[in-house]
Known about the structure:
This protein is mainly α.
Amino acid sequence: MTDSFDGPPQTPPAERASFLDGVRFAFGTLTVLPARITRWDRPAARTGMACAPLAGLVVGVLATLPGVLLLLLGGGPLLAATLTVAGPAALTRALHLDGLADTADGLGSAKPADEALRIMKQSDIGPFGVVTLVIVLLLQVAALSEIYADSWIRGALAAVVAAVAARLAMTLACREGVPAARPGGLGAAVAGVVPRRAAALIAALTVAAAAAAALPMGLPAAGRSAAAVLAALLAAQLLLRRCVRRFDGVTGDVFGALAEVAATTALIVLALG
Length: 273
């Protein structure tokens, strides 16, 4: 998610948006999957960002397919992990990775908030962004490779859990009280739209679903899956606090960075088992 997307024309405001409007908003802004956004207003953004983990579920499932197929055909776990990590990047036009790089450049610039935001908006990537991208992608591939080496089922589940946790981090970052760093862009459109109670409920349901999905592999696996989501949210929250203090709010780039940090943290926790 970045600030380069201005969205379709504004629609007349309404108090509520339908679930379908929210799903279209979530998939239309967070993925490249065909989803025509029918509403671009605060109610649609509220429902859409609440549906972000659902978009993560679809992205995660699609991302695992080439890696799992490669393993079943006799390929190695490293190659399978690389293909799986490339999946979310392809399904999001690498916007979240771009947001991670821009956020790293902004945080590393040591400039005042307005100058840091200007650096983040530039099209080029600085040294902080390059190093951060390399480290994060290496961590994701290394962690997922270890999990795939143990079991393709564990690897597939880990990729899905990481993708869901990444979008759940966005949902929590859209909760009430989190300000936008600047008036324009997608970050401003979704900042503060999700009620705190709704965000907490969605987080609790997602943690429970992650544990339930891993339960067939045993209680330790279920506990580790839940812990991975919680650790991902904690890491994202720490980054969110830093960005809000540094930039006086959030931007689309920050949301992308939160997603990548959450996904990486989840994979590392799942690899520890």
